[in-house]
């Protein structure tokens, strides 16, 4: 199609509204729920202007960009309303449009009112896509949107003309990190450090961060490990004309696995509980004053009802302020403590995990956030904990978990694996231990290099995380050795699914020549040339019902793995239920 024909098609699109909105999901990475949708626009199908790059590039050249943007915005809002999509709607707006004559103040709000939509669910996504955008983004226009109740986002942080300067000046509600820094982040330490730094800035500025361009599971896992909570990209969902996105199954599965692990392993708030003086609801304020004098370090005193259940606290500074006023003590010292009761206090059952308590604390309103945590058992008062102790213990646990995790896959290492086996033995659970190991991995590493070898190990880890049900424990011993502790009776089906997927995926790491030969030729340490077939995965499985400790389980699992490897190919071997003979040196998982 000639340039004249394309220009004519553009005019036809603008005059007849021939724009089709597409929507790409933005997910909450912590639980798999939809956070919102970004609206993207397409021209007529099977035309030269169907793709957004061609469409918007021509509109820019023909000086019709702003007219096109306004049409796309109107179409996107109408379609979003018609489809009744979940979450927020992200609308792309070029920086220069806000100051242009075509930009009509109140147009977007008018469309929303007509459709019955709430402007709090609309995010104006500002981008510096075009050469003249850097002439200056009108701060007044941004504030105009914000005052009307819209949220403002900066798109493509890390590219463009002003990036961090724009962030500083506009103070947006949301920042989207450009896909350049997301792609390959699992293999690039510099990109990881960049994203960590941006996350730190965002947290200090109370700004929401979204990672764009997530294209594979490894990138997603790395972003979750860093602490990114929102993301979009082809791995999570491609733009589509008729979206039906709900929860994302992989994210939901990982959230369930984290929740199960925390439930099984995390310490409870009981560890924070300290004996604390308390008062009954009919106690007098003078008694509270005497209690504070007797305990100088006491910040708040729990107040209990007749059933020994906490109903609130008396805080030292509030009582001091009351008694410091003229005639304050004389007027109030003989009145019940309920006259000064504060009920904005966190009351938690003693068996609740520290992770859950942390979530409760962070969900509190900032102006009601207090230091004390009242601990109860079946509603009855036990004692109090403090916010600083909670934060200290959670930090210690995070450092411990990081220390015991494998750096390549971020999966739990030897120590957590041993603990999990020991825990299940102690509780007499019915479980299976599967030991995964690659056949002919060293020759593959020697032939293709360590970078490709690491990528294969990451593939195995990703497949296990994807295909193993969330209530099972996954660990990475090191190198190409993985362990799954199954509580499921269909463990064999899950293992077979991993083998089938691996047999297909691993072929992507070979060249056409090596695939045609069925493997690679390498020399051993004696100088002899040997042939090694395409990588396969051996799985040795044990059902350790009669084992007394994790050492015995480790010995059985090692024997099962050895049998699986001797069989060759992608194979599962279930070891007979035997107790290994005690040895002076016991193999470890």
Low-confidence stretches: 130-134, 583-587
**CATH superfamily of the domain at 405-574, called what?**
Reverse transcriptase/Diguanylate cyclase domain
Q: Identify the CATH architecture of the domain at 405-574.
A: 2-Layer Sandwich
User: What radius of gyration results from the CA coordinates?
Assistant: 31 Å
Mean pLDDT: 85
Distance between the termini: 65 Å
CATH class of the domain at 405-574: Alpha Beta
Q: Globular, elongated, flat, extended or rod-shaped: what is the shape?
A: flat
Provide a count of the helices: 20
Major sheet details: 8 strands, mixed, barrel
Account of the protein in words:
With 589 residues, the chain is of the alpha/beta class. Among the domains are: 269-393, CBS-domain (Roll), CATH 3.10.580.10; 405-574, Alpha-Beta Plaits, CATH 3.30.70.270. Helix content is 41%, strand content 20%. It has 20 helices and 21 strands. The strands form five sheets. Strands 1-2-3-4-5-6-7-8 form an eight-stranded mixed β-barrel, surrounded by four helices. The protein has a five-stranded mixed beta sheet with strand order 16-17-15-20-21, sandwiched between helices. α6 links the parallel β5 (151-157) and β6 (174-177). α17 packs antiparallel against α18. The protein is flat and about 95 Å long. Residues 130-134 and 583-587 have low confidence and may be disordered. Residues 3-253 form the EAL domain. Residues 272-331 form the CBS domain. It holds the Pfam family GGDEF. Keywords: CBS domain.
């Amino acid at each position: 199609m000639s340039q004249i024909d394309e220009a004519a098609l553009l005019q036809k699109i603008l005059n007849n509204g021939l724009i089709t909105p597409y929507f790409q999901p933005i997910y909450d990475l912590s639980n798999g729920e939809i956070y919102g949708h970004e609206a993207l626009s397409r021209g007529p199908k099977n035309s030269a202007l169907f793709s957004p790059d061609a469409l918007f590039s021509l509109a820019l050249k023909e000086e019709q960009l702003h007219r096109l943007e306004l049409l796309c915005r109107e179409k996107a809002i109408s379609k979003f309303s018609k489809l009744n999509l979940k979450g927020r709607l992200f609308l792309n707006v070029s920086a220069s449009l806000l100051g242009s004559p075509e930009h009509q103040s109140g147009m977007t709000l008018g469309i929303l009112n007509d459709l019955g939509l709430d402007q709090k669910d609309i995010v104006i996504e500002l981008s510096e896509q075009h050469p003249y955008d850097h002439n200056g983004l009108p701060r007044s226009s941004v504030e105009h949107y914000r005052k009307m109740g819209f949220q403002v986002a900066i798109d493509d942080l890390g590219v463009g003309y002003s990036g961090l300067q724009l962030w500083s000046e506009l103070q947006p509600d949301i920042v989207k990190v450009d896909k350049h820094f997301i792609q390959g982040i699992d293999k690039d330490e510099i990109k990881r450090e960049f994203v960590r730094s941006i996350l730190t800035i965002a947290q200090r500025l109370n700004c929401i961060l979204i990672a764009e361009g997530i294209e594979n599971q490894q990138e997603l896992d790395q972003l979750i490990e860093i602490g990114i909570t929102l993301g979009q990209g082809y791995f999570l969902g491609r733009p589509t004309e008729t979206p039906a996105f709900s929860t994302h199954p992989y994210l939901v599965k990982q959230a369930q696995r984290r929740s199960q692990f925390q439930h099984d392993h995390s310490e409870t708030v009981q560890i924070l509980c300290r004996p604390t003086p308390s008062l009954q609801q009919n106690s007098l304020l003078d008694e509270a004053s005497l209690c504070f004098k007797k305990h100088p370090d006491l910040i708040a005193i729990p107040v209990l009802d007749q059933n020994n259940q906490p109903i609130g606290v008396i805080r030292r500074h509030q009582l001091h302020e009351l008694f410091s006023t003229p005639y304050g003590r004389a007027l109030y010292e003989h009145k019940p403590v309920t006259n000064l009761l504060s009920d904005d206090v966190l009351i938690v059952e003693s068996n609740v995990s520290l992770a859950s308590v942390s979530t409760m604390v962070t969900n509190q309103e900032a102006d009601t956030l207090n230091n004390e945590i009242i601990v109860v058992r079946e509603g009855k008062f036990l004692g109090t904990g403090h916010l600083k102790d909670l934060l200290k213990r959670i930090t210690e646990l995070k450092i411990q978990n990081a220390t015991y995790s494998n750096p390549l896959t971020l999966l739990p290492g030897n120590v957590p694996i041993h603990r999990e086996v020991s825990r299940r033995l102690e509780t007499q659970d019915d479980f299976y231990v599967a030991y995964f190991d690659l056949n002919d991995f060293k020759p593959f590493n020697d032939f293709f290099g360590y970078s490709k070898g690491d990528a294969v190990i990451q593939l195995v880890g990703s497949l296990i995380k994807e295909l193993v049900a969330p209530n099972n424990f996954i660990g990475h011993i090191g190198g190409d050795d993985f362990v799954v502790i199954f509580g499921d009776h269909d463990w064999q089906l899950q293992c077979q699914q991993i083998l089938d997927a691996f047999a297909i995926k691993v072929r992507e790491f070979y060249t056409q020549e090596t695939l045609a030969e069925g493997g690679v030729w390498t020399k051993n340490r004696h100088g002899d040339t040997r042939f090694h077939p395409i990588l396969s995965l051996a799985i040795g499985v044990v059902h350790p019902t009669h084992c007394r400790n994790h050492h015995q389980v480790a010995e059985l699992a090692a024997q099962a793995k050895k049998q699986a490897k001797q069989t060759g190919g992608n194979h599962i071997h279930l070891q007979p239920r035997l107790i290994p003979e005690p040895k002076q040196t016991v193999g470890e998982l």
